[in-house]
Design brief:
Blueprint lengths: L1 H13 L16 E5 L2 E8 L2 H6 L11 E11 L2 E2 L8 E6 L5 E7 L7 E2 L4 E8 L2 H4 L9 E4 L1
Length: 146
Amino acid sequence: MKLSRTLVAMCAYLAPCGVSAAQMPVEPNPALVIFGSDTIRAEVARSPDQRQRGLMFRDAVPEGTGMLFIFDRPDVQGIWMKDTYVPLDVAFLDASFRVVNIESLEPLDLTVKNSARAVLFALEVRQGWFADNEIGPGAQAHIQFR
């Protein structure tokens, strides 16, 4: 557990300094994204190919699961639903793991939904999960890489 916290801290401090996600000392899968007492077990997409594929071609996203996208550097990021069959919500998180904004995503919609400002992470979960758990902009997450 102590090692996980150290890695999370390193990610938060190294990423804004131009260290790419591929260089961060974390294992790619899975991650626990924790908001208070609510936890998502997330697959991790950090390479360009993994981020492009995301949750495409899935028939379901089980309760309590999702996908954490790690971008190479903080920037305004966009997400779309090409070849994605399940309704999702995406929370865009800054380098300190704070929620910047949350957007609803409809299946197969090619409209790009953007972060409100520069972010380093995006978390996709089943649609309604954030609202059901009263998580909104400003919420603080903790991420443990396993």
